[in-house]
């Protein structure tokens, strides 16, 4: 059984070679799913975004600590995901309260 960080060859055809660790593949899938959920305005978009950012921070720190740019980028993206989650949660609560009172206007962001 390969470790999460052991490099695995996924596709090898002529000059094309895709090598990544299982952890890197999972982080990539997580971020792609995060973007898909954001596109559908799902509250799970920012939540999964935080998970994806943490995975990439761990990946960058574990594979090459000199990848500080990737770490900084993911810290910034993670803070944006947290902010979006707070904002969307607040707006969802306001919309639910307005719906209970019979007010059909959506609260301003």
Question: Short summary of the structure?
Answer:
This protein is mostly helical and 109 residues long. Helix content is 65%, strand content 12%. A two-stranded antiparallel ribbon has the order 1-2.
Task: Describe the model.
By secondary structure, this protein is mostly helical. It has one domain (22-100). It is built from 3 helices and 2 strands, in the order E-E-H-H-H. The protein has helices at residues 22-39, 44-63, 68-100; strands at 7-13, 16-21. It has a two-stranded antiparallel sheet. The longest helix has 33 residues, at 68-100.
List the helices and strands and how they pair.
Elements: E1 7-13, E2 16-21, H1 22-39, H2 44-63, H3 68-100
Helix pairs in contact: 1-2, 2-3
The Cα radius of gyration reads 19 Å
CA-CA gap between termini: 49 Å
Low-confidence runs: none
Q: Look at the helices and sheets and give the structural class.
A: mainly alpha
What are the key terms here?
single chain; 109 residues; mainly alpha; two-stranded antiparallel sheet; 3 helices; 2 strands; elongated
